[in-house]
Amino acid sequence: MRILLIEDDRKAARLLARGLQEEGFVVDVVHTAEEGDEEAFVIAYDLIVLDWMLPGKDGLTLCRDLRQRGCKTPVLMLTARDALGDRVAGLNNGADDYLTKPFAFDELLARVRALLRRSEIMRPVVLALADLSLDPQSQRVMRGGQVLDLTHKEFAILQILMRHAGEVVSRSRLAEQVWKDDLIAIDNLIDVHIGNLRRKVDAPPAAPLIHTVRGRGFRLAPPDDGHA
């Protein structure tokens, strides 16, 4: 499970990150809303832990902006503001849970795990778009009733595109999630794998579902989508 921690107090961020890492989570730490905004749309996180009081744009505004742009990642809001109106504002602007400072790490950990469990329960078992389906557990992909034989990398790319259907997925996001740290000549590799994936998923006479958005990345969309 990968968590994005957005906290401007560097000491507090180090302590929280260390505690979560000791529990087995992968934790990325940033200290401003602008950095958090960029990270949230480059990497598919399982959870965002977000401090309300950030320099410049605050956490409440960032949470609202993320939701308006289609980010569905669970958000746990951290703040010293404990008035009822503040808690309501946090939840109304897209936070999934709210924890007031100071707090015990055990309580934060319990809330993190509860949000992650809820996210897993709500996540569809089989991903589907038009006549294309992908089963993450069996790693079976079908289009028009026919099973598609995909490589490991092709499956990983398609799963990311399907989890973010309708959104533009950048090359940097694919590089981070599919190739991890192996970023040598990554643009060429991505183009080769996308080309191979298209030949299998969008083989004639099927209508194309995988679209290139020039200068931005790739998008999975149904044939009748006006943006395709």
Automatic annotation (TrEMBL):
Stretches assigned to the OmpR/PhoB-type domain: 124-222
Residues modified as 4-aspartylphosphate: 51
An annotated GO cellular component: cytosol
PROSITE patterns registered for this protein in UniProt: OMPR_PHOB, RESPONSE_REGULATORY
Feature: DNA-binding region: 124-222
Matches recorded under SUPFAM superfamilies: CheY-like
CDD domains from the UniProt entry: trans_reg_C (cd00383)
GO molecular function: phosphorelay response regulator activity; transcription cis-regulatory region binding
Response regulatory domain mapped to chain residues: 2-116
Swiss-Prot/TrEMBL GO biological process terms: regulation of DNA-templated transcription
Superkingdom of this protein's organism: Bacteria
A family per Pfam: Response_reg
Record keywords, A-Z: DNA-binding, Phosphoprotein, Transcription, Transcription regulation, Two-component regulatory system
Record-linked PANTHER family: REGULATOR OF RPOS
UniProt-recorded name of the protein: DNA-binding response OmpR family regulator
Species assigned in the record: Variovorax boronicumulans
